[in-house]
Amino acid sequence: MYLGTELRRIRKRRKETLAEVSKETGISVSFLSGIERGQTNPSLDTLNRLVDYYQLPTSLLLAASGMNGSQNSANLPGYSDFVSQMGDKLSENVKNLLVQVHYNAQKPAKTKEDWMRYYYLLEPIVG
Length: 127
Hints:
- By secondary structure, the chain is an all-alpha fold.
- It folds into two domains: about 5-65, lambda repressor-like DNA-binding domains (434 Repressor (Amino-terminal Domain)), CATH 1.10.260.40; about 75-125.
- The protein is built from eight helices and no strands.
- It has helices spanning about 5-15, 20-25, 30-35, 45-55, 60-65, 80-85, 90-105, 110-125.
- The longest helix has 15 residues, at about 110-125.
């Protein structure tokens, strides 16, 4: 299942319209619709606003949507060095989220420092 499909399922379960979600999150109806249809991916800021609005932990949303970042992560540039440096600080959910950010970023991570930047951007979201 895709992230957008899961967001749509949550919205429908709450019996809300795209316009209602848009009004509360400040995200346009057309962009929300694009996310739900899988035509666009949310930025970290947008994902954070949606997670806050739906009152869900990011890791739960990603797990429920079937987004698993562990696939082929060892082959990503700088990833293994980053994970080694971080040690026990990284949960599997955070690792998965970081890999998904990598795959959806306009500029994918190429170094250990890029992975660190992703981590520190996500830290306020995932706690």
